[in-house]
Amino acid sequence: MIPTLETPRLTLRGFAPGDVEAFAGFYASEASRFVGGPEDLVSTWKRIAAYAGCWSLRGYGKFVAVEKASGRPVGIFGPSFPGGWPEPEIGWTVLPEFEGRGYAAEAAMRTIVFAYDELGWSTAMSAIFPGNERSFRLAARLGARPDGSAEIEPLGTLDIWRHLPPAEFRKQIARTQ
User: Mind listing the pLDDT tens digit for each residue in 114-142?
Assistant: First the structure.
């Protein structure tokens, strides 16, 4: 059973029919270069299917964040642990039309809380493509710090950002709210 998470402006839910089409334009564009794109529609379908399948294989996975006001998908966020990765991660992808509104921090923060409180994680990391300044700023805003790099095939060498441990993360959230 995939839970539904809430934030003040977003609903985070499991993948549903129509989500491949909602994200296909993004994954086909140059804007997806920091998440392994650009790619064709078949590759996007396989990507979304892998995200959805992670729930069956790992008991957790990424969520689609939907803007409550419009019902439109904002991005993809949450815990995952694809084969070949050094450890589980908190990932995020924001559709360009929703950048700069604070949705990424809101959704990422909620999924980190989920990973710590519901999944029992004692640590979390995010693997970020070198040069992805927006993601570096988001990771720093969430309290994460650079923690080396890892070779992740077929993506290459990614920068690892270590999130605050659960107790420190909760304190930071309390300060920002």
Answer: 999 999 999 999 999 999 999 999 999 99
Q: Specify the range with the lowest mean pLDDT, choosing from 55-64, 70-79, 121-130, 164-173.
A: 164-173
Bridge partners (DSSP) listed for residue 80? 89
Domain residue limits at 169: 5-176
Measured CA to CA, the distance from residue 118 to residue 99 in angstroms comes to 28
H/E element holding 76? strand 73-80
**Count of structural domains within the chain:** 1
- Order of strands, edge to edge, in the sheet holding 125-128? 125-128, 156-162, 145-152
Average pLDDT of the segment spanning 46-69: 95
Sign of the alpha-carbon dihedral angle for 24, 25, 31, 33: positive
Give the CATH number, domain containing residue 160.
3.40.630.30
Q: Are strands 63-67 and 89-94 parallel, antiparallel or unpaired?
A: unpaired
Mean pLDDT for all residues in the chain: 94
